[in-house]
Amino acid sequence: MQPEKRRQLIAYLIRHHFVEDQESLVYLLKEQYQLDIAQSIISRDLQYLKAVKVTQGGRRIYQIPAIDVQEQIVQLAVASIEHNQTLVVIKTRPGLADAVAEFFDTQKIPRILATLAGENTVLIIPTDITQTALLADELKIKYTNLPDKGYVHE
């Protein structure tokens, strides 16, 4: 599994579970996503994510710093992300496609050549059509609220 996908899953689990230790993350990754990840890798990923331990409800749990406000808005705006062999299509909440396309344009993501927005649809033209599925998966993981188990397995 690619490190970015794994880190997105770890961040998701920390945000949605009371994760007290690395062993709990190893267990959750195995239980929910059938992933066997070594504790040493989890440790490095936690450092990369800048995870900190905080006291909440009398328990010491991991917490990830809040994501960028613009990313949060995009996550709320995106309804679905699909692709075919050459293009990625993002469905948004009504009237938000232009804002989502503008966000991707300003991010200067190397895999994105251009975007085109309608009322509730964003068309993404990949830089390399052999990487369309990978681009779609990366966008699904990063810009949708709930990671779908179908997107994490390679």
Automatic annotation (TrEMBL):
Residues 2-66 form the Arginine repressor DNA-binding domain. One of its GO terms (cellular component) is cytoplasm. Residues 77-140 form the Arginine repressor C-terminal domain. Pathway: Amino-acid biosynthesis; L-arginine biosynthesis [regulation]. One of its GO terms (biological process) is regulation of arginine biosynthetic process. Its main location: cytoplasm. GO terms for molecular function: arginine binding; DNA binding; DNA-binding transcription factor activity. It comes from the Bacteria. Belongs to the ArgR family. This is Arginine repressor. It comes from candidate division TM6 bacterium JCVI TM6SC1.
